[in-house]
Write a sequence for this structure.
Protein backbone atom coordinates (compact mmCIF):
# COMPACT_ATOMS: atom_id res chain seq x y z
CA UNK A 1 0.00 0.00 0.00
CA UNK A 2 1.24 3.48 -0.88
CA UNK A 3 0.64 6.39 1.50
CA UNK A 4 1.96 9.80 0.53
CA UNK A 5 1.67 12.97 2.61
CA UNK A 6 1.98 16.44 1.02
CA UNK A 7 2.31 19.77 2.84
CA UNK A 8 0.53 22.47 0.81
CA UNK A 9 1.64 25.21 3.23
CA UNK A 10 0.21 26.41 6.58
CA UNK A 11 -2.21 23.79 8.02
CA UNK A 12 -3.25 22.36 4.65
CA UNK A 13 -2.27 18.78 3.85
CA UNK A 14 -2.82 16.22 1.11
CA UNK A 15 -2.87 12.47 1.42
CA UNK A 16 -2.71 10.02 -1.46
CA UNK A 17 -3.68 6.54 -0.30
CA UNK A 18 -3.36 4.11 -3.21
CA UNK A 19 -4.71 6.81 -5.54
CA UNK A 20 -7.51 8.06 -3.25
CA UNK A 21 -6.94 11.77 -2.67
CA UNK A 22 -7.69 13.52 0.61
CA UNK A 23 -7.27 17.22 1.34
CA UNK A 24 -7.14 18.31 4.98
CA UNK A 25 -8.20 21.89 5.87
CA UNK A 26 -8.13 23.32 2.31
CA UNK A 27 -6.68 26.86 2.48
CA UNK A 28 -5.29 27.87 -0.90
CA UNK A 29 -6.79 31.14 -2.23
CA UNK A 30 -5.78 33.53 0.59
CA UNK A 31 -2.84 31.46 1.85
CA UNK A 32 0.44 33.35 1.24
CA UNK A 33 2.43 30.09 1.60
CA UNK A 34 0.20 27.86 -0.57
CA UNK A 35 2.24 25.76 -2.98
CA UNK A 36 -0.57 25.55 -5.55
CA UNK A 37 -3.72 27.39 -6.58
CA UNK A 38 -7.09 25.83 -5.82
CA UNK A 39 -7.78 24.91 -9.49
CA UNK A 40 -4.99 22.33 -9.61
CA UNK A 41 -6.24 20.42 -6.56
CA UNK A 42 -7.95 17.02 -6.80
CA UNK A 43 -9.89 15.51 -3.89
CA UNK A 44 -12.09 12.50 -3.20
CA UNK A 45 -12.46 13.44 0.48
CA UNK A 46 -11.96 16.68 2.43
CA UNK A 47 -11.39 16.65 6.20
CA UNK A 48 -12.08 19.82 8.18
CA UNK A 49 -10.56 19.99 11.68
CA UNK A 50 -12.31 23.16 12.92
CA UNK A 51 -14.23 26.23 11.80
CA UNK A 52 -11.49 28.87 11.63
CA UNK A 53 -11.11 30.74 8.35
CA UNK A 54 -7.60 29.44 7.64
CA UNK A 55 -8.93 25.84 7.74
CA UNK A 56 -12.50 25.82 6.39
CA UNK A 57 -11.37 28.43 3.82
CA UNK A 58 -11.77 26.75 0.40
CA UNK A 59 -13.88 23.79 1.56
CA UNK A 60 -17.05 24.83 -0.32
CA UNK A 61 -15.30 25.71 -3.63
CA UNK A 62 -13.11 22.58 -3.47
CA UNK A 63 -16.23 20.45 -2.91
CA UNK A 64 -17.93 22.16 -5.88
CA UNK A 65 -14.80 21.62 -8.01
CA UNK A 66 -14.31 17.94 -7.14
CA UNK A 67 -17.53 16.57 -5.62
CA UNK A 68 -15.44 15.38 -2.64
CA UNK A 69 -17.25 14.19 0.49
CA UNK A 70 -16.48 16.51 3.43
CA UNK A 71 -15.80 14.91 6.80
CA UNK A 72 -16.19 17.32 9.73
CA UNK A 73 -17.74 17.58 13.18
CA UNK A 74 -21.55 17.67 13.32
CA UNK A 75 -21.84 21.47 13.74
CA UNK A 76 -19.56 22.20 10.77
CA UNK A 77 -21.20 19.43 8.70
CA UNK A 78 -24.64 21.05 9.34
CA UNK A 79 -23.25 24.48 8.34
CA UNK A 80 -21.79 23.02 5.12
CA UNK A 81 -24.91 20.99 4.30
CA UNK A 82 -26.88 24.29 4.22
CA UNK A 83 -24.48 25.30 1.40
CA UNK A 84 -25.32 22.08 -0.48
CA UNK A 85 -22.07 20.34 0.41
CA UNK A 86 -22.11 16.52 0.79
CA UNK A 87 -20.93 15.71 4.31
CA UNK A 88 -20.18 12.93 6.78
CA UNK A 89 -20.40 14.09 10.41
CA UNK A 90 -18.23 12.62 13.17
CA UNK A 91 -17.21 13.89 16.58
CA UNK A 92 -14.41 13.73 19.14
CA UNK A 93 -13.56 10.16 20.13
CA UNK A 94 -15.59 8.73 17.25
CA UNK A 95 -14.03 6.62 14.54
CA UNK A 96 -15.47 5.35 11.26
CA UNK A 97 -14.19 3.00 8.57
CA UNK A 98 -14.19 5.06 5.35
CA UNK A 99 -13.11 3.67 1.94
CA UNK A 100 -9.60 5.16 2.52
CA UNK A 101 -9.18 3.75 6.04
CA UNK A 102 -10.32 4.29 9.63
CA UNK A 103 -10.57 7.92 10.71
CA UNK A 104 -10.94 8.89 14.36
CA UNK A 105 -11.58 12.43 15.58
CA UNK A 106 -9.28 13.32 18.47
CA UNK A 107 -9.30 16.06 21.10
CA UNK A 108 -7.74 19.43 20.29
CA UNK A 109 -7.27 22.36 22.64
CA UNK A 110 -8.34 25.32 20.48
CA UNK A 111 -11.46 27.15 19.20
CA UNK A 112 -13.75 26.41 16.25
CA UNK A 113 -15.95 29.44 15.50
CA UNK A 114 -17.02 29.64 11.84
CA UNK A 115 -16.23 32.71 9.67
CA UNK A 116 -19.84 34.01 9.85
CA UNK A 117 -19.95 33.68 13.65
CA UNK A 118 -21.83 30.34 13.64
CA UNK A 119 -20.97 27.72 16.26
CA UNK A 120 -18.36 25.37 14.80
CA UNK A 121 -18.56 22.87 17.69
CA UNK A 122 -15.32 21.59 19.15
CA UNK A 123 -12.00 21.57 17.28
CA UNK A 124 -10.49 18.21 16.39
CA UNK A 125 -7.33 16.43 15.38
CA UNK A 126 -7.31 13.27 13.29
CA UNK A 127 -5.97 9.75 13.76
CA UNK A 128 -5.84 7.78 10.51
CA UNK A 129 -5.33 4.00 10.46
CA UNK A 130 -4.87 2.56 6.98
CA UNK A 131 -5.81 -0.94 5.80
CA UNK A 132 -2.23 -2.10 6.43
CA UNK A 133 -2.22 -0.57 9.95
CA UNK A 134 -0.15 2.53 9.24
CA UNK A 135 -1.06 5.23 11.77
CA UNK A 136 -0.82 8.95 11.12
CA UNK A 137 -1.83 11.63 13.65
CA UNK A 138 -2.67 15.17 12.59
CA UNK A 139 -2.77 17.40 15.67
CA UNK A 140 -4.15 20.29 13.55
CA UNK A 141 -4.57 23.51 15.58
CA UNK A 142 -3.98 22.77 19.25
CA UNK A 143 -2.00 23.57 22.34
CA UNK A 144 -0.04 20.87 24.13
CA UNK A 145 -2.15 18.44 26.19
CA UNK A 146 -1.11 15.46 28.30
CA UNK A 147 -3.57 13.05 26.69
CA UNK A 148 -1.35 13.07 23.59
CA UNK A 149 0.30 10.12 25.34
CA UNK A 150 -2.99 8.17 24.89
CA UNK A 151 -2.97 8.98 21.16
CA UNK A 152 0.70 7.96 20.96
CA UNK A 153 -0.07 4.63 22.62
CA UNK A 154 -1.61 3.58 19.28
CA UNK A 155 1.97 3.42 17.88
CA UNK A 156 2.33 6.24 15.34
CA UNK A 157 4.24 6.07 12.07
CA UNK A 158 3.90 9.83 11.55
CA UNK A 159 2.74 12.82 13.57
CA UNK A 160 2.09 16.22 11.95
CA UNK A 161 2.34 18.99 14.54
CA UNK A 162 1.93 22.78 14.57
CA UNK A 163 5.04 24.71 15.64
CA UNK A 164 4.04 28.30 14.77
CA UNK A 165 3.24 29.49 18.32
CA UNK A 166 0.82 32.40 18.96
CA UNK A 167 -2.31 30.47 17.79
CA UNK A 168 -1.09 26.92 18.50
CA UNK A 169 1.80 25.06 20.11
CA UNK A 170 5.18 26.65 19.56
CA UNK A 171 8.42 24.77 18.89
CA UNK A 172 9.16 23.95 22.55
CA UNK A 173 5.71 22.50 23.25
CA UNK A 174 5.91 20.61 19.93
CA UNK A 175 9.08 18.92 21.24
CA UNK A 176 7.15 17.98 24.42
CA UNK A 177 4.27 16.74 22.24
CA UNK A 178 6.67 14.56 20.26
CA UNK A 179 7.88 12.99 23.52
CA UNK A 180 4.26 12.18 24.51
CA UNK A 181 3.30 10.89 21.04
CA UNK A 182 6.54 9.00 20.34
CA UNK A 183 6.00 8.74 16.56
CA UNK A 184 8.57 7.25 14.15
CA UNK A 185 8.48 10.41 12.04
CA UNK A 186 7.35 13.98 12.78
CA UNK A 187 6.60 16.86 10.37
CA UNK A 188 6.12 20.51 11.45
CA UNK A 189 3.29 22.70 10.09
CA UNK A 190 1.26 25.89 10.76
CA UNK A 191 4.33 28.20 10.70
CA UNK A 192 5.96 30.81 8.41
CA UNK A 193 2.61 31.66 6.78
CA UNK A 194 2.73 35.14 8.29
CA UNK A 195 5.35 37.04 10.34
CA UNK A 196 3.37 36.35 13.53
CA UNK A 197 4.07 32.60 13.30
CA UNK A 198 7.59 32.69 11.82
CA UNK A 199 9.77 29.89 13.26
CA UNK A 200 13.17 28.32 12.66
CA UNK A 201 12.07 24.79 11.72
CA UNK A 202 15.65 23.55 11.31
CA UNK A 203 16.48 24.54 14.91
CA UNK A 204 13.32 22.72 16.02
CA UNK A 205 14.35 19.65 14.02
CA UNK A 206 17.74 19.64 15.77
CA UNK A 207 15.96 19.56 19.15
CA UNK A 208 13.75 16.67 17.94
CA UNK A 209 16.89 14.75 16.86
CA UNK A 210 18.64 15.44 20.18
CA UNK A 211 15.74 15.01 22.63
CA UNK A 212 13.33 12.45 21.13
CA UNK A 213 13.34 9.10 19.30
CA UNK A 214 11.43 10.58 16.33
CA UNK A 215 12.95 11.48 12.96
CA UNK A 216 12.03 15.06 11.94
CA UNK A 217 11.29 15.99 8.33
CA UNK A 218 11.20 19.70 7.53
CA UNK A 219 9.30 20.13 4.25
CA UNK A 220 8.83 23.12 1.97
CA UNK A 221 5.26 23.85 0.81
CA UNK A 222 4.56 21.43 -2.06
CA UNK A 223 6.96 18.76 -0.74
CA UNK A 224 5.80 15.21 -0.11
CA UNK A 225 6.79 12.46 2.31
CA UNK A 226 6.13 8.75 1.71
CA UNK A 227 4.94 7.08 4.91
NI1 LIG B 1 -7.49 27.66 14.27
MN1 LIG C 1 -5.07 27.79 12.09
Amino acid sequence: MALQFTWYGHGTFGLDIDGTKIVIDPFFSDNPSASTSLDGVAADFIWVSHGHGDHIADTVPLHKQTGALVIANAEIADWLAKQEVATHAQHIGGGYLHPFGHLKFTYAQHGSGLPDGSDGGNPAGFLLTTADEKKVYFACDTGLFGDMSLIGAAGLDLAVLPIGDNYTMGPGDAVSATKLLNPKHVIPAHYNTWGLIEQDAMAWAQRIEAETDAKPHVLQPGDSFAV
